[in-house]
Amino acid sequence: QKEVEQNSGPLSVPEGAIASLNCTYSDRGSQSFFWYRQYSGKSPELIMSIYSNGDKEDGRFTAQLNKASQYVSLLIRDSQPSDSATYLCASSGAGSYQLTFGKGTKLSVIP
Amino acid sequence: EAGVTQFPSHSVIEKGQTVTLRCDPISGHDNLYWYRRVMGKEIKFLLHFVKESKQDESGMPNNRFLAERTGGTYSTLKVQPAELEDSGVYFCASSPLGQGAYEQYFGPGTRLTVT
Asked: Most CB atoms closer than 10 Å: which of A36, A69, B60, B74?
């Protein structure tokens, strides 16, 4: 059974701080990893994808992947109240388009 | 560019009735996926179309669920007859072939309530 685990939160950070969201996965064959942001009642929005070990930066977001530890993280720098949402971690296996999701971490950025 | 659209946004039906959900993918996206989120659980994969062909339907829970994608454009997901455990939010997603194929863009979902 492939699983993606996330701390459900809520994770509360003050405005301007760094928010750190973590995710572990059970399937060593996982090759592709994604972070989605979901506002309440809205669609999951793809914000980051990462395919190889190391860091990938896009604006205020940095995704980190460590395949040896089966660990993925998302850092949000200079957190804003508009970043308050549920963040979903997802993975897919080699050659597979089937996404396995975690339950999500709820982030609250306090003004 | 219009995103993935789904219809209806909400549906309330009685156990034993039939419901059909519709998904219109992003224009030009040949990959189309259906997912479902049951309350308190994670989003789970149902199936994957490439154009009009079912590429992977390993997540379909049982034969009460029928997905189609005639002509390789929009897709429908029919539940017949609906059971209480079918309640949840049904998401559709799409992605292009080739570059970016693994990056799926989700629609707003259809919230299905079976009473």
From this structure: A36
